[in-house]
Design brief:
C4-dicarboxylate ABC transporter permease; transmembrane; membrane
């Protein structure tokens, strides 16, 4: 009953003019951002956050929801038409989507992609509404020691799983931990890593970090001409094909379930969900054209990667542990607007958080309408010259970051983080663990010190509850994952070398 009451209370706010306008604008921008190779939902939201500083929380979150959902669909446009995934989650879309476009079935491919994306997003948003509140109620039972291990689990998971090289993931997380320590210690009042700079006494603004790491590197890449888009290959012609929508219903059900499951597991993301759904559909499909332009081979990954969107927010909103880089950026946006992720969010800001979950559902419908009406316009977004787009992104980020605190120090800091982010990308060091560590690091530190204060310095208190022990076991298993992966890889190499040596 509380869920229904909170949804009912949030509905008038969600359907207000300013929130609806924000959702429409966010969805439109999101599709356009997703359609541009090299840009992503993470970058789009990172650019937007400074611009939403003066907005009310729900207006800002409505726009963010639109960008998130829109970008996940937008990535399929260049994947289908150019064989270039607009977003990482669009990789599996290429397999059958581009083949359909080559056969002159681009319109049908875009229609299937749009419909599948909208259905996946809607299912994910409904799951967020139904699953997140009960999970938040369970999370209220967590103590300081439990929160410490939860934060450690979140950081370890992303650091280990988000990169093929766990050492690089841990390096990124350590960088984020150091950034999170900058400022005045809340418990002792001493300065840490401020280097006598008054601008650093309050710490490094999360907006500055997010914008620098996620918005500047793609802009620098565009300025350097690092774009693989060949607009001469664009093809949106062809007769309208009749699509057997009924045959895709089982595909949508199966792929939505895969996307939801993957979304609940930190660090996996839409690209994993899309590839798993494509493989599963290939396993059950009897079509000889699979991988050669089969509609179900396109519907499966598009539905799965969009079913992942709101699902990744379930642990983010309820436990404060983001499932991927986009969720981490959204948590940063919520912190900017005074909303502290975690179980208290549902107790102290119920109307706003339920309103945000509703915007995730509504923008999935808006995505379908806007995508249908503006298909040709979004295809033309691909024709924007990279040398024009790069300066536009830099100008928006500079103005937005400066407006937060009217500080040029923040602008220079953002540009510095941008160069660091660009170097990290060049060295294949993931940036998501750094952002996650900045958010979860202070939480882990405060919870650890609070636990020791409660226990009088007894470290055994950290292992005194079933929740803590469970999380410790999960952390150990997570750390063993790369070891097991390495052992299996060595066994495979040994087996491959045996025939040649015998």
């Amino acid at each position: 009953m509380d869920i229904l009451a909170n949804i009912w209370a949030a509905l008038p706010l969600v359907f207000s003019f300013d929130v609806m306008l924000a959702m429409v604008l966010g969805t439109t921008v999101g599709i356009a951002v997703g359609a541009l190779p090299g840009l992503s939902a993470t970058m789009g939201i990172a650019v937007l956050i400074p611009l939403t500083f003066a907005m009310s929380p729900l207006v800002a979150l409505g726009m963010i929801a639109g960008i998130y959902n829109g970008a996940m669909y937008g990535g399929s446009i260049p994947a289908i038409l150019l064989r270039i995934p607009g977003t990482p989650a669009g990789i599996a879309t290429v397999f059958d989507g581009y083949e359909m476009a080559r056969q002159g079935r681009a319109r049908a491919a875009l229609d299937i992609s749009l419909t599948s994306s909208a259905i996946g997003s809607a299912v994910s948003a409904i799951a967020l509404l139904l699953v997140a509140p009960p999970l938040a109620a369970v999370a209220l039972k967590f103590g300081p020691a439990d929160y410490f291990w939860l934060a450690m689990f979140g950081m370890m998971t992303v650091a280990v799983l988000i990169s093929d090289n766990p050492a690089k993931g841990f390096l990124s997380a350590c960088f984020g931990l150091v950034i999170g320590l900058v400022g005045i210690d809340s418990m002792t009042g001493t300065e840490r890593f401020t280097f006598d700079q008054l601008n650093l006494l309050s710490g490094i603004n999360i907006i500055v970090l997010l914008t620098g790491l996620y918005a500047i590197p793609p802009a620098v890449g565009l300025l350097l001409g690092q774009s693989d888009v060949d607009t001469s290959r664009l093809n949106f012609k062809g007769v309208k094909e009749r699509i057997d929508w009924a045959s895709l219903v089982p595909v949508w059900i199966r792929s939505s379930a895969i996307g939801l499951f993957i979304g609940l597991i930190p660090a996996l993301g839409g690209n994993v969900a899309a590839i798993l759904a494509w493989n599963e559909q290939r396993r059950v499909s009897k079509s000889p054209n699979y991988g050669k332009g089969a509609p179900d081979g396109l519907a499966a990954p598009e539905c799965a990667n969009n079913a992942d969107t709101a699902a990744t927010l379930i642990p983010a909103l309820t436990l404060g542990v983001p499932g991927n880089a986009v969720a981490a950026v959204i948590l940063g946006a919520m912190l900017v607007h005074g909303l502290k992720p975690g179980p208290e969010l549902f107790r102290d800001n119920a109307t706003t958080v339920y309103g945000f979950m509703l915007t995730m559902l509504i923008t999935s419908g808006l995505m379908y309408v806007i995508g249908k009406l503006g298909a040709r316009a979004f295809v033309n977004v691909l024709r924007l010259p990279p040398l024009l787009l790069g300066p536009m992104i830099l100008a928006l980020t500079t103005v937005g970051v400066y407006a937060v605190q009217n500080s040029m120090f923040d602008v220079w800091l953002m540009l510095g983080f941008g160069l660091i982010g660009f170097a990290m990308e060049r060295m294949s060091i993931p940036t998501a663990p750094a952002v996650l560590a900045v958010i979860l690091g202070p939480m882990a530190e405060a919870s650890f010190r609070r636990a020791l204060l409660i226990s009088g310095g007894e470290y055994g208190y950290l292992f005194s509850s079933a929740i803590s022990i469970t999380l410790v076991v999960l952390i150990v298993l997570m750390l063993l994952t790369p070891v097991v992966r390495h052992i299996r890889a060595r066994q495979r190499r040994t087996q491959e070398e045996l025939p040649s040596g015998s």
